[in-house]
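Supplementary Methods. Inverse-folding protocol.

Structures were first reduced to a discrete structure-token string of length 205. This string, shown here, constituted the complete conditioning input.
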């Protein structure tokens, strides 16, 4: 019971931090990759964190159920989504914009704190064994976002700052480089899902 209560409190904390981070994003935008109001929803960072917050709320509403496959898979998918956000910042965006800049304001919560808490919450507390087929569900967020991101560029062009449609800068080094970056994102996302699943399953073997 103590373990179950601790997980519930951790989900409450994550949900609160998501709400606070989004409040900062809307009303006190500071740092790169931010937008006021609905414009902030163009970023995978924001969408993945809101998804994690929603998954936490769903978990809390169904925490009394011993087994709930949808609840547990939802937490897995959301954890993978925010982990991808963290990895992209550490590997790609951080070297471009600077880590201090990338962790300023709401980005501290969305790029670092919430992903770390989500990873820890899933790996340590999830006791439902995730199967390999769950990796397919885990790929859905980045797949759907990729359709939106590339579709917007295909229809409207890359654009010119401050109205660029390539707000993550994937096309900064040309189309070929962008293709490799996007392929690396999909591959990296699959590896993230596999790694989290295997670590979680081994911890609760």
């Amino acid at each position: 019971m103590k373990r179950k209560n601790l997980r519930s409190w951790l989900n409450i904390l994550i949900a609160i931090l998501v709400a606070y981070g989004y409040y900062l994003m809307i009303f006190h935008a500071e740092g790169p990759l931010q937008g006021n109001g609905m414009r902030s929803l163009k970023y995978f960072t924001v969408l993945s964190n809101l998804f994690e917050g929603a998954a936490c709320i769903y978990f809390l509403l169904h925490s009394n159920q011993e087994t709930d496959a949808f609840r547990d898979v939802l937490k897995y998918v959301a954890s993978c989504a925010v982990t991808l956000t963290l990895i992209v910042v550490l590997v790609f965006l951080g070297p471009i914009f600077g880590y201090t800049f990338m962790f300023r304001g709401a980005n501290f919560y969305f790029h670092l704190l919430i992903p770390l808490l989500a990873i820890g919450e899933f790996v340590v507390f999830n006791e439902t064994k995730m199967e390999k087929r769950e990796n397919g569900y885990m790929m859905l967020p980045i797949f759907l976002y990729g359709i939106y991101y590339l579709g917007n560029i295909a229809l409207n062009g890359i654009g010119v700052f401050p109205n660029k449609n390539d707000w993550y800068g994937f096309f900064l080094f040309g189309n070929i480089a962008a293709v490799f970056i996007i392929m690396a994102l999909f591959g990296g996302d699959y590896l993230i899902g596999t790694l989290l699943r295997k670590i979680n399953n081994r911890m609760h073997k």
